[in-house]
Design brief:
- The protein has 933 residues and is an alpha/beta fold.
- α11 links the parallel β17 and β18.
């Protein structure tokens, strides 16, 4: 079937449907007319009115019913299969599976892997070799391998977090096909054209020739992407892209550096539209905290837009030393500067007082950047404050003018000659100068040089050996137009012309805006490249946190290389998307550049079969069709019996017994909700009459028995040492039982256990958000391999990650020494169990970076961490036998290790019951002192 996922094992049997008209005729044919014989006594019967009449032929609806039953039998004999296995063929040639594994394949990666695994299984049944060809690896050696090896290689593939260049793989495919000869090709396409898609299709069509080709496309949600985020004056906007499909709307989430949500913005597509916009109407302070934008529910690196300090809308103070700014505001330098800076910065103009007063106010406000237009001599005290501000990371941009030209000021990047240079005047032979090309290694690299900009006057720099390294822009005669230098963490820049149009028409050009934008961008980095430095000395930044193909952060791969601190391109293999550089001022690299767009990939040029991804497996419909035909025949029999009067006579003779039998059977067939309701009520009464600890029943009898004994031992310890007299622990099934009755749920993680159903995950998520705490224990601290990340490589931790992948888990951190959990009841430094080498993790709370760590008070408010993770096997340490002896030994077996394990359990239980109230103890000295006064 071309339009339905349906096939037949014996399609020739469908010819039996042609016999249905003959069957219709046979069922409708009339029997021969009976012979008439005159019999005089028959007239006595004429006056008797008949109670029933026999039709002369079969009713049409009964005939249709019988034909439908016959058609179902014919269809069942043909062997119908819904969602037939794809790739099934009688060919014995090798199978080459070409896989799109760029960022656009990540959102539907599971469906792609499932289709490839099914193709490998079919090829294995036919004893065919398999070759895997990921399009992101043009240098990969393409070889034919058996099915087992192909499955292992398939599991090792993962979507890349950048756009792949399919055309680079054509050479390797061509060499493989020439060496292999006859071969069947299956392309698992993602349906997205990120560029050069038509070239790849033409090249593939040429090298494939007359070989059989199947293209998988459709059947999965279309890929969505984000690009071109912009922090404008009133709001932050980001472009939402799609290649096609029927996605009409969605939500973009904004997160800060710790992953906490800041806001959400909805977006919608009109029919046929491939690009739309999501906007965040938030205060500028909140928008400046956004470090990550992501499409909710979309798992791909392309659906993530990382933001660094370049996207922060910085406040810029503008001070002018010219007195004409007040008299002619539309000709003033502040007018041109405000217009040029306002698209990407919050401009704050100095007051009408003295320039030094305005500068002092801006320094008090701790603005990151200031622009001084023709400000001459500064007082020594103010100059010292400005120099200290620059060394701490401030950016000072100065514009020349009559006052600066006559001042003896060393707060400039180069030494200046007193006075100025006039061009094109009546007393000079020189003509106005045009701009030269911007240096390829300078901050203005890549900007278009305006041909209509001329300079009539400038301040000249004293030539020296370092002047070329400090020149960012120059005139055609080689004299500097813009100079700059890095001073400690800050930046000092000088435009050798005025900020108005008296000395140059540069403020009227678009290049003026872009030059200021570049300077504002540079101001966001305390470790950026030294402006004007040569390419050999340009600073590079190392990868810090890298996105994988699914848009999750992870450690940098071995292929990630450092990049220039002024990098502005899209992500590549050498520079995958993520954050680079220091943690306090990282550089963001995104999957898509601001100008990138995506389109649907048109594969119609290939002479190929089409298949679609599906999440359902093959299903044999023969049983359903045969059951349906049997039901129709039963209906036919009941109808015949009814028309023949058999049912009526049976009811007349057996009315009383039938009624009695029906009365007995009817209650048995009705559902009995009382049993289920009674069980639920008993569970609720048992859970609420006493405070009880709960544990998740894993289905592993040994683990469940140890956990139950452990929680029973902890309950006994709580009764002996605290005022809490809890009831016996209760085992729960998150998918079936109500969890809100329990303050703490202990979840022992069994390595290799199947992931809980989504309904259970949703209930756990709701339980955590409503104030409950889940304690996950992987119980494998002793199995952790050596190394920094050894604890995250155990089988139990891998199973836990699968469980947490569907939960909305907050950012976690090891329990700090000042956390309330360490002093809820006992004063503890760590939380041992059977093992004491594992770490205990809780929800990370915000820290005050300016506060001394040693004197910082306990953090947090009244909330409790919804999740606690450990690997020390706490329940194993708590477990006791009926005779009161420990059930399991301790490792390494310190004398008081079990005692401290029980104390850790007491602290955890008290923490979940009482919250962070002990955080207020840090105020006790101040309260006592106040009471003493």
């Amino acid at each position: 079937m071309a339009s339905l996922p349906l096939s037949f094992l014996e399609p020739m049997l469908l010819l039996g449907l042609l016999s249905l008209p003959v069957l219709w005729w046979l069922l409708r044919v009339m029997p021969p007319r009976p012979r008439r014989i005159e019999f005089p006594p028959t007239r006595l019967l004429f006056d008797i009115a008949p109670k029933e009449e026999t039709p002369s032929r079969t009713p049409w609806w009964l005939t249709a019913l019988r034909l439908a039953a016959a058609a179902l039998i014919i269809l069942a004999a043909a062997g119908p299969i819904w969602n037939p296995p794809v790739g099934a063929t009688t060919s014995h040639a090798p199978l080459a599976i070409v896989i799109d594994d760029g960022w656009s394949a990540a959102s539907s990666w599971d469906a792609r892997v499932k289709a490839a695994d099914e193709l490998i299984s079919n090829a294995n049944n036919d004893r065919r070799g398999i070759a895997l060809i990921p399009l992101s690896e043009p240098t990969r050696d393409i070889t034919i391998m058996p099915a087992g090896t192909a499955r292992v290689a398939l599991r090792q593939l993962a979507p890349k977090p950048y756009s792949i260049e399919r055309t680079e793989t054509l050479g390797a495919i061509d060499r493989f096909l020439k060496a292999t000869g006859d071969c069947e090709i299956v392309w698992l396409s993602d349906g997205v054209d990120s560029g050069h898609g038509a070239d790849f299709l033409q090249g593939l069509k040429k090298i494939v020739g007359d070989r059989a080709v199947t293209v998988f496309e459709g059947g999965t949600p279309p890929a969505l992407a984000l690009a071109a985020a912009e922090n404008a004056a009133a709001r932050m906007t980001v472009k939402v892209l799609r290649a096609g499909g029927n996605v009409a709307s969605g939500v973009v989430r904004a997160l800060d550096q710790k992953g906490s949500p800041i806001g959400e913005a909805r977006f919608g597509f009109t029919p046929g539209e491939r690009e739309t916009e999501a906007s965040f109407d938030l205060p500028v302070e909140l928008r400046n905290d956004i470090s990550r934008l992501e499409i909710s529910g979309e798992r791909s690196a392309g659906a993530v837009q990382l933001l660094d300090k370049r996207w922060r809308r910085r406040a810029v103070g503008v001070v002018s030393g010219a007195s004409t700014d007040t008299a002619q505001p539309l000709l003033a330098s502040t007018f041109y500067l405000a217009r040029a800076l306002s698209p990407f910065a919050d401009v704050r103009l100095g007051g009408r007082g003295a320039p030094q007063q305005a500068i002092s106010e801006f320094l008090d406000q701790k603005l990151p950047m200031m622009v001084l237009a023709d400000v001459g001599t500064l007082s020594p005290e103010l100059r010292e404050r400005i120099e200290a501000w620059i060394q701490r990371g401030g950016v000072l941009v100065r514009f020349a003018g009559p006052r600066l030209a006559q001042a003896d000021d060393d707060l400039v990047p180069v030494k200046l000659r007193r006075g100025g240079r006039s061009l094109g005047g009546s007393l000079t032979w020189e003509k106005p100068q045009h701009l030269a090309a911007f240096a390829a290694d300078g901050p203005f690299a890549g900007l278009t040089v305006p041909k209509d900009v001329t300079v009539n006057r400038q301040v000249l720099a004293e030539p020296d050996a370092v002047l070329p390294t400090k020149s960012w822009a120059s005139l055609e005669d080689g004299t500097p137009l813009v100079t700059g230098e890095r001073r400690d963490k800050g930046l000092l820049v000088l435009f050798h012309v005025s900020a108005d149009v008296r000395w140059s028409n540069l403020p009227l050009s678009g290049s003026f805006v872009e030059m200021l934008r570049r300077i504002v961008d540079i101001s966001g980095y305390s470790s950026g490249p030294a402006p004007g430095a040569t390419s050999e000395a340009a600073e590079t930044v190392a990868p810090l946190h890298i996105l994988d193909g699914f848009g999750a952060f992870g450690p940098p791969p071995s292929t990630a290389k450092p990049l220039a601190a002024d990098f502005r391109g899209r992500a590549t293999l050498d520079h995958p998307p993520g954050f680079y550089g220091p943690a306090d001022g990282p550089l963001a690299v995104n999957t898509l550049a601001p100008t990138d767009r995506v389109a649907a990939l048109d594969t119609s040029v290939l002479n190929a079969q089409r298949a679609s991804y599906t999440n359902a497996g093959p299903r044999d419909l023969r049983g359903i069709l045969l059951a349906a035909s049997l039901a129709l025949f039963l209906i036919d029999a009941v109808v015949i019996a009814f028309l023949g009067g058999g049912i009526a006579s049976l009811l007349r003779r057996r009315a009383a017994p039938a009624a009695l039998l029906l009365a007995l059977l009817l209650p048995m067939g009705l559902p009995s909700p009382t049993k289920a309701d009674s069980a639920a009520d008993d569970f609720a009464i048992k859970a609420t009459t006493q405070t009880r600890l709960a544990y998740v029943v894993t289905g592993n009898a040994d683990v469940d028995s140890i956990v139950k004994a452990g929680l029973s031992g902890l309950t006994l310890f709580l009764a002996q040492r605290t005022a809490l007299e809890a009831g016996d622990p209760v085992g729960v099934d998150p998918a079936r039982d109500e969890l809100a009755f329990f303050p703490l749920i202990y979840w022992p993680v069994v390595p290799g256990a199947p992931k809980p159903p989504q309904a259970a995950i949703d209930k756990i998520d709701a339980y955590m958000k409503q104030g409950g705490t889940v304690l996950f224990d992987t119980r494998d601290a002793i199995e952790a391999p050596a190394g920094q990340n050894g604890a995250s490589q155990t089988p139990g931790m891998q199973t836990l990650r699968e469980i947490l992948s569907s939960l909305d888990v907050p950012e976690l951190e090891p329990v700090p020494r000042e956390h309330v959990l360490t002093k809820t009841f006992y004063l503890l430094r760590d939380f041992p169990g059977r093992f004491d080498t594992g770490q205990t993790w809780v929800e990370a709370l915000p820290r005050n970076e300016d506060e001394d760590t040693a004197s910082r008070p306990a953090r947090g408010g009244d909330g409790v961490s919804p999740i606690i993770i450990t690997s020390n096997d706490l329940a194993g340490a708590w477990a006791i036998r009926p005779d009161g002896q420990p059930m399991l030994p301790m490792t390494p077996g310190e004398p008081r290790q079990r005692e401290f394990a029980f104390r850790a359990g007491v602290n955890i239980v008290m923490y979940t019951l009482t919250g962070n109230y002990k955080a207020d103890q840090v105020h006790a000295p101040a309260l006592i002192e106040r009471l003493g006064q």
